[in-house]
Specification:
Layout: H1 13-16, H2 26-36, H3 58-86, H4 94-120, H5 137-142, H6 147-163, H7 166-172, H8 176-204, H9 208-227, H10 234-248, H11 268-272, H12 286-301, H13 303-317, H14 329-345, H15 356-364, H16 369-386, H17 388-393, H18 396-418, H19 422-437, H20 440-452, H21 467-488, H22 492-495
Pfam families: DUF3360
Keywords: Membrane, Transmembrane, Transmembrane helix
Protein name: Xanthine/uracil/vitamin C permease
Length: about 500
């Protein structure tokens, strides 16, 4: 009797796995791992049966940990400063901000780094930080918003968008030229911001040459890593080098260790229970929800281009035949929405989004989401308990360099790779111009509408789209973004248009 053979596409991951020694290079082995994975959506996925841990997973885990400490601390400090200005009875400082960041790194790390993407849905990216919203947090606090009210609204809107598959549809409606222009603008402006911050820090401590040397060493190391094909090592390698360089040049006198080892207060009542402890705001009322509403709409509207950039990074770095392991935009929105509500209810204040400082180096390293997610969640819990590593991670030569080489330079490179011909360059150019005139979100919405109707870019594109995809959805997105920005006064600093609310 002839034995039945299993077709390659029907084999399980465990059956299709081959040891690295059978491949000509490490890169070929990692690409094969991506091609044979068959993630189970919202079902149990197990190490060994559905994926493996590789030493490359340590790189995005370390990069994500460094990045998220910096982001969480920046968000908490922005809320503390804004609320201290908005309310006479509130005085919150650096130590308070670090304590809040530690709260965000414990339970959410267990639930939404280790359990959710690690075991239940390997196609859902980790829920990290919404970087473009950080500059707005001061305005959000001064507008009378409440961190918990904002989180609940954002979570509800995000769940609605994911339930109706709105996130993936918006991603599909964004042409390559528009996406490329968006990434170029975000990458360039973000890189310039980090360079400016490093220079401001070094001149602020009376050692302007330190910032220049740190940046010069970073450029040389980053170029070397790109040349040898190890760019996925950029965040830990460059952040550590920035730390050592600054210390050797004598800049360490402003690096202080004040965070003690132990668990932060995880009692939600302490944080939100009264106006005398925690955030000193008490539970949100109707007025808080009204003030938070436009910012919640804006944050969710900004999710799609953010998620788009991270998925594009996978597509650019993964080989063919790996569609099954690409990040699912709608599932990631679900995870981010739930994480937003849970994390803030415990006492946090993060505004969440797809975790870029994890996804970008993971994609460059040709690694899928789950194994690195488990390592990242474990590192976050350890760091949050120890405390003192957070003082190092928020030091400018570490934090700014990590964001520069781990997020903004890769975004810039990915955007340039997407601009392949004249049609794409036209759409990208208009997107960059519109972003400079207004902001990236409004630019994305406007150029998506123009591109899908053939007014810029590919003139054949409208023929492949329905009326709903050409006009109704892009126009609705543009109007929602514009209305939210006008409501909260985002155009006032540039054009003097006051907030409608």
């Amino acid at each position: 009797m002839q034995e039945q053979t299993t077709k390659p596409e029907e084999k399980s991951y465990r059956e299709a796995h081959r040891p690295a020694s059978e491949f000509n290079s490490r890169s070929e082995y990692l690409e094969h791992e991506l091609q044979i994975m068959k993630p189970r959506r919202w079902r149990l996925n197990l190490p060994g049966r559905d994926y493996r841990f590789e030493w490359e997973d340590l790189v995005p885990a370390l990069a994500g940990t460094i990045g998220i400490i910096a982001m969480y601390s920046a968000v908490a400090m922005s809320w503390a400063d804004g609320l201290s200005q908005a309310w006479d009875h509130i005085e919150l400082g650096r130590d308070f901000a670090i304590e809040v960041a530690r709260v965000e790194m414990l339970i959410p790390a267990l639930l939404f780094c280790i359990i959710a993407p690690g075991f239940l849905n390997p196609r859902s990216n980790l829920a990290g930080n919404h970087g473009p919203m950080i500059p707005l947090i001061g305005a959000i606090a001064l507008a009378g918003a409440h961190p918990l009210a904002l989180a609940l609204l954002l979570g509800v809107f995000g769940l609605l968008l994911s339930a109706f598959k709105g996130g993936s549809r918006l991603v599909n409606l964004t042409g390559e030229g528009v996406a490329g222009g968006l990434l170029v603008f975000l990458g360039f402006t973000g890189a310039m911001s980090q360079i400016s911050d490093i220079q401001s820090w070094s001149t602020g401590i009376g050692m302007g040459h330190v910032g220049l040397v740190v940046l010069a060493v970073t450029i040389v190391l980053y170029a070397f890593l790109a040349k040898v094909g190890k760019r996925w090592l950029a965040i830990p390698a460059c952040a550590f080098t920035g730390l050592i360089t600054a210390l050797l040049l004598g800049a360490g006198f402003d690096l202080t260790f004040t965070t003690e080892t132990g668990l932060p207060n995880l009692n939600p009542v302490y944080w939100w229970g009264s106006t005398e402890q925690g955030w000193m705001l008490g539970l949100p009322n109707l007025q808080h929800f009204i003030a938070s509403l436009p910012f919640a709409i804006l944050a969710v509207a900004m999710w799609s281009p953010d998620f788009l950039g991270h998925r594009i990074f996978q597509e650019l770095n993964y080989p063919k035949g790996t569609e099954k392991v690409l990040m699912d935009v709608d599932d990631t929105m679900t995870t981010c929405s739930v994480r937003q509500m849970v994390g803030t209810s415990l006492g946090g204040c993060n505004i969440t989004s797809s975790w870029g400082t994890y996804m970008i180096p993971a994609a460059i390293a040709k690694r899928p989401i789950p194994a690195g997610a488990i390592l990242l969640g474990t590192l976050c819990i350890i760091v949050a308990y120890l405390g003192f590593p957070m003082d190092v991670a928020v030091w400018p030569p570490v934090m700014r360099i990590a964001l520069l080489v781990g997020v903004f330079l890769p975004l810039l490179e990915a955007g340039m790779q997407m601009i392949k011909d004249t049609k794409d360059s036209q759409s990208a150019g208009i997107c960059v111009f519109a972003a400079a005139v207004t902001n990236p979100v409004l630019a994305w919405a406007l150029t998506m509408l123009l591109d899908n109707n053939g007014l810029i870019g590919d003139k054949e594109r409208p023929k492949r789209l329905s009326k709903m995809d050409r006009i109704v959805i892009p126009a609705a997105v543009l109007l929602i973004c514009l209305a939210a920005m006008l409501a909260v006064g985002m155009l006032e600093p540039q054009y003097g248009i006051p907030a409608l609310m």
